[in-house]
Design goal:
With 198 residues, the protein is an alpha/beta fold. Helix content is 27%, strand content 19%. It is built from six helices and six strands. Helix 4 links the parallel strand 4 and strand 5. Helix 4 runs parallel beside helix 5. The two termini are 15 Å apart. Bound molecules: pyrazine-2-carboxylic acid and zinc ion.
């Protein structure tokens, strides 16, 4: 096992869009979205304890974002940067060393993936990271597109099935998203496995 692997610098936790608007009571609430909070908190705590890199993404739209129904898009207004709905889940304790990635900031572009028009890839490569433990919201949109991009970019992506939740606009969307991620070479894991020995 390489020195890089041994000091843990080669793997990171990637928490996708655990924001108030995607949680119960929010503008675009993911059904059962709060199931991700406890497993992700365990991951955040353990990765921080071990000084492992932690990234949190946030949907961070301008007020006139093209994905909003007010602009002819398909989503209710959500996660407008700087508003309470865009804040991370209040229940989540975010370690001081966590790195934030804001996405969806261009009013003209829908950007589900955390790699879309962000410097996430450069930051991961700079740290020598090759493996990502991924959880968050929503399985069938931002988690899906983030994991597909991670695979295209050559990262080993491990999706924590107990730490994701789907919008399921059409029943089965979440399950199909999981299948698509697996077909792209992502593997399924759990938060327990992600924190074991990390
Ligand atoms: C998301 C719908 C619209 C997500 C973001 O984070 O999955 N879904 N914007
Ligand atoms: Zn959005």
């Amino acid at each position: 096992m390489s020195a890089v692997r041994d000091n843990g610098a080669a793997e990171a936790l990637l928490v996708v869009d655990v924001q108030r608007d995607f949680l119960p009571g929010g503008a675009l609430a993911v059904p059962g979205g709060d199931r991700v909070l406890a497993p992700l908190q365990r991951c955040l705590d353990r990765f921080a304890e071990r000084a492992r890199p932690v990234f949190l993404t946030r949907d961070w739209h301008p007020a006139d974002h093209c994905s909003f129904t007010t602009q002819g898009g398909s989503w209710p207004v959500h996660c407008v940067g700087g508003t309470p709905g865009a804040a991370f889940a209040p229940a989540l304790h975010i370690p001081a060393q966590a790195q934030l990635v804001s996405k969806g900031t261009d009013p003209r572009a829908e950007a589900y993936s955390a790699f879309s028009a962000t410097d996430l890839c450069a930051r991961l490569r700079h740290l020598g990271i090759h493996r990502l433990y991924v959880g968050g919201l929503a399985t069938d949109y931002c988690v899906l597109q983030t994991v597909l991009d991670a695979r295209s970019l050559g990262f080993d992506a491990r999706v924590m099935t107990d730490a994701v939740a789907a919008v399921d606009l059409a029943p089965g969307d979440g399950a199909r998203a999981i299948q698509r991620m697996q077909a792209a070479g992502a593997t399924l894991t759990t938060s327990e496995e992600a924190v074991a020995a990390r």
